[in-house]
Amino acid sequence: MNTHFVSPPRLLGLGTAVPPHELPQDMVKQVASRILGARYPEFERLSKSFENSGIDRRYSVVPFEWFEQAKDWPARTKAYLEGATSLFIAAARQALDASGLRPDEIDTIVTVSSTGIATPTLEARAMQQMGFRSDVRRVPVFGLGCAGGVTGLSLAARLAAVAPGSKVLLVCVEACTLAFRADRLQKADIIATVLFGDGAAAACISTDGRQGAILGEGQEHTWPDTLPIMGWEVDADGFGVVFDRSIPAFVKDNFAAAVETALERMGLDLGSLRRMICHPGGAKVVDAIESALHLEQGVLDHERSVLRDYGNMSAPTALFVLQRVAESGLKGNMMLAALGPGFTASMLPIRFE
Q1: Residue range 40-86, pLDDT digits in tens
Q2: Dihedral of CA 52/56/61/64: which sign?
Q3: Residues whose CB is less than 8 angstroms from the CB of residue 103 and which lie 6 or more positions away in sequence, other chains included
């Protein structure tokens, strides 16, 4: 009797990229104060969030001057198409180089982005410059928000598993800063100004490999009646962020049960994990995750360092953390996790050997 063993999908290489415009947090506060301070009565009180955010700097696809004047959909879309396409190419090339693959070896491209609308989508816009094959399969995904990096990697692993030997490229690209709004004057817009940065992360996945972290089967948990917690409101001028102030408390009260259920389905338990690898949505969210899972305070050090260096870039951020964990040389079973609109927890088991 002949048996054919199919290797599990593996993470062959990671790449990350940020745009050229650095936004030091103290300068962001100064600019935001000049634009918003006189118009928004609560700005002075909320401005303390800049110092308490745990963020030193962020990066943007546009310079500070861009934010000084009101922007409509066409202006935001133009900046997104230019900036996000460049980020796509930079992150994808890094991941390919790290994997030892050529662009024409890629069979499927999964593109995750929720901060702009592009049709044709980003991978099509980058195709000629990248050198992808004309028969490459394109899988663009919109609307996952901060959970997009984990869900996108889970999707890429599934696509690699059902077509053994194929090469899948995941690229997560977000230009969060383009959602800056000076007209709505809501608390959520101030918090977004405190937290958001732009960036991209890419990964190559295949069953055709003997090295690289093993990717398991991802799990998701969507809580009922939580649609208003996180997302976008869409109006004539662009996206308007939705952030509920209850997010840290909600995570503290509900995240552990979702993690435990997912681990049970994976045949794991929290005690068997060397590490949780989490999306750092904000300093308070990182604290809430540690509290919910009864982790030692401060153990999510790579999460805090990524937040400090880049801010919350939405979908790519979890993969920035994953890259730092991989570079640290830590081995064993881990779980990548992120929270996003839905309100949904996305989780993916990963084993470094």
Answers
A1: 877 888 888 888 899 999 999 999 999 988 899 999 999 999 999 99
A2: positive
A3: 92, 96, 130, 131, 132
Cis peptide before 164 (omega within 30 of 0): no
Q: DSSP 3-state assignment of 209?
A: coil
Could you tell me if 136 and 239 lie in one domain? no
Residue 289, φ and ψ in degrees, nearest 5: -65, -45
Residues 149 and 229 in one domain: no
pLDDT 10s digits, 195-254: 999 999 999 999 997 789 999 999 999 999 999 999 998 888 888 888 887 899 999 999
Q: What is the pTM assigned to this prediction? A: 0.94
Q: Given 146, 172, 176, 278, which residue is catalytic?
A: 146
Q: Where are the alpha helices (DSSP H) in 69-204?
A: 73-99, 122-130, 148-162, 187-195
Angle 264-230-276 (CA atoms, 0-180°, nearest 5)?
35
Q: Which structural domain range is residue 144 located in?
A: 10-206
Active site residue 146: yes
The radius of gyration computed from the CA coordinates of the chain, to the nearest angstrom, equals 20
